[in-house]
Design a protein that fits this description.
2 copies of one chain form a homodimer.
Chain A (H helix, E strand, L loop, with lengths): L1 E5 L8 H14 L4 E5 L5 H5 L10 H5 L10 E2 L5 E4 L7 H8 L6 H12 L4 E5 L6 H9 L2 E7 L3 H20 L4 E8 L6 H14 L12 H5 L7 H4 L4 H19 L1
Parallel strand pairs in A: 1-5, 1-6, 2-4, 2-5, 6-7
Antiparallel strand pairs in A: 3-4
Helix pairs in contact in A: 1-11, 5-6
The complex binds adenosine-5'-triphosphate (ATP) (2 copies) and magnesium ion (2 copies).
One adenosine-5'-triphosphate sits at the interface of chains B and A.
Chain lengths: 256, 256
C-alpha cells in the first residue's frame, strides 16, 4: 500500500477536490483506494456524503480507543473506503504537543493498515497549515502530491512546502519524495495562468503532471451534494480531467 | 480602537486580500489603521512588502520578549501600520496549549494597544482553521468580518463559524458580534454565484454588505508585487470595490 499525502499549506487550492476526485477515479478503475480525511474541518468526508460523527475519526484510535482498522468506513462506490474526520481531530495537535513531539505518531498509527495491505493506495487529505498534523502526515507518507493554483503566489507556496518536505525527510522519513505537482483551477481566460504553469515547469519540470485541472462550475457543485464528481456528472470536463490524472498517476507508479 | 478579526475557517476565501485591501482603503481615507497578521504563513505581511523576519511578530511579545508596541512597523502608506507575522507564530498554539488553555492570552497581549488608542481600527488577518490561534482572535476581537466565497459550501462554513462565535462570546467575550459578511470572488458568469448570495441574504440579511467583491485578475496579482491594490492599480474594479466596502464599513460604525 502506498500512502500519498495531498498537501499544500495554502488554503483553497484544491487539496480536498483532488483527494476526493483522484480517489474516486482510481476506485472506478478497480484500484482499491482508502481516502483518509486528515482535516478537522472534514470537507473530504462531507464531499463523500459522510455526516460528522463524534468518535469516528483517526482521533479515537490516536488516543488509544480502538484500532485504526475499526474506523474504516465503506462507501457506496466499489473499491473506495474512507477514514472520515470530525472536529475532535484538532485535538491531536494538542495531544502530540504534550507528548515530547514524537514525529512518528501518525506513522505508527497507520502501521496496521500497511501490514493488512488491503488497499493499493491511501490518499490523505491534509489541512491548510504547516502545523503538527501536517508534519505528522509528511512523516507518515511515502510521497506528497502538491495541488497548485495557477496564481503567482503559488510559486512562493511551492518552495515553502518543498523546503518543509526536505526537512521532514532528513529528520524522520528518508524515502519521502514528491509524487507530483498538479496545476488546479486553470482558467484559460487569464493570461497569468499559463505563465505560472511555465514558471513551475522551469523549476520542477519532471514533477508537474501533464494533466491540468480546469476551473469548472461542476467541480465546485459536487461536494454540496455529498457526491464525488464521478457520481455527480460522469462526463463533465472536471471528471475527464481527474480521470486523466488517475491514469497519469498510475503510469508513474511503474517507473518508481 | 476597534479590533476587527477577518475570519473564516475555510481556506482561500479572501481573508488576506480583504484584510490588506480594507486596511489600505481605510488608511487612504485618513483612518489610522493597524493590520495585525495573525497567520504564521504571513501572507498579509508579504502582500504589503514585508519580508519574514524571525523575532518580528506577535510571538516575541507573546513569550514575553518585548512589549507589543515594539513590534509595530510603519509602512510607506500614510495611516497604515502593520504587526507582521513569521512562521514562529505557529509556536503560539503549542505555548498556549501548555498554559492551561487561557482563552484570553491574545486579548491581554493587545491591551497596551487599546490603552494607547493611537489607531482607530486594528484589522486582524486570521489563519484558515478553528484552532487555538483563531479562538484567541475571537476572544480578543470586538467584532468579526466574515469573507464568504460565492460557492455552495460557503453556507455550511458560515453556520460553522457563526456557531463558533456564539460559543466564544458565551465563554469569554460578551460583546463579540459579527461586523459584517462580505461576498468575495463574485463571478457573474456562474449561475450559482447569485443564488449563493440570495441564500446568505435569507439567513443573515442584515449582516451582508451591499458591496460585493468581484473576481478580478488585478486583485490576485497585487500581492506578488508586495503592493496593496490601492498602490498596484488605483482605479481597478477591485480597488473601487474595496473602497466601497471601506465606506460601508465606516457607515456601520456610526450606527452601533
Ligand atoms: N477545478 C475547480 N473548478 C472550480 N471550483 C473548484 C475546483 N477545484 C476546487 N474548487 C472549489 O474551490 C474551493 C476550494 O477547493 P478545495 O476545498 O478543494 O481546496 P482545499 O485546498 O482543500 O481548501 P482548504 O485549504 O480549505 O482545505 C471549493 O469550493 C471547491 O469546490
Ligand atoms: N476578488 C478576487 N479576485 C481574484 N483573485 C482573488 C480575489 N480575492 C482573492 N484572490 C486570490 O485568491 C487566492 C486566495 O485569496 P486569499 O489569500 O486572500 O484568501 P485567504 O482566505 O486569506 O486564504 P488562506 O485561507 O490561505 O489564508 C489568492 O491567490 C488571492 O490573490
Ligand atoms: Mg481541504
Ligand atoms: Mg490568508
Amino acid at each position: 500500500m502506498k500512502i500519498v499525502a495531498v498537501a499544500n499549506q495554502k488554503g483553497g487550492v484544491g487539496k480536498t477536490t483532488t483527494s476526493v476526485s483522484l480517489a474516486a477515479c482510481l476506485a472506478e478503475k478497480g484500484v482499491k483506494t482508502l481516502l483518509i480525511d486528515l482535516d478537522p474541518q472534514a470537507s473530504a468526508s462531507s464531499a463523500l456524503g459522510f455526516e460528522e460523527q463524534p468518535g469516528c475519526s483517526l482521533y479515537t484510535s490516536f488516543i488509544g480507543e480502538g484500532n485504526i482498522l475499526s474506523v474504516i468506513k465503506t462507501t457506496t462506490y466499489p473499491n473506495l473506503c474512507v477514514i472520515p474526520s470530525e472536529k475532535d481531530l484538532a485535538g491531536i495537535e494538542i495531544e502530540i504537543a504534550k507528548m515530547d513531539d514524537n514525529l512518528l505518531r501518525l506513522r505508527q498509527l497507520l502501521e496496521p493498515l500497511r501490514r493488512q495491505n488491503e488497499f493499493d493506495f491511501a490518499i490523505m487529505d491534509c489541512p491548510p497549515s504547516l502545523g503538527t498534523l501536517m508534519t505528522q502526515a509528511l512523516a507518515a507518507a511515502d510521497s506528497i502530491l502538491v495541488p497548485l493554483q495557477c496564481e503567482y503566489l503559488s510559486l512562493e507556496g511551492l518552495s515553502k512546502i518543498v523546503g518543509y518536505i526536505d526537512r521532514v525527510r532528513d529528520a524522520a522519513n528518508p524515502g519521502l519524495h514528491i509524487e507530483g505537482i498538479l496545476m488546479t483551477m486553470f482558467d484559460a481566460r487569464t493570461r497569468h495562468s499559463q505563465s505560472v504553469i511555465n514558471e513551475v515547469k522551469e523549476h520542477m519540470g519532471d514533477k508537474i503532471y501533464r494533466t491540468i485541472i480546469p476551473r469548472t462550475v461542476r467541480l465546485s457543485e459536487a461536494p454540496s451534494f455529498g457526491l464525488p464528481i464521478t457520481a455527480y456528472d460522469k462526463n463533465s470536463t472536471g471528471t475527464v480531467a481527474y480521470r486523466a490524472l488517475a491514469d497519469e498517476f498510475l503510469s508513474r507508479q511503474k517507473k518508481s
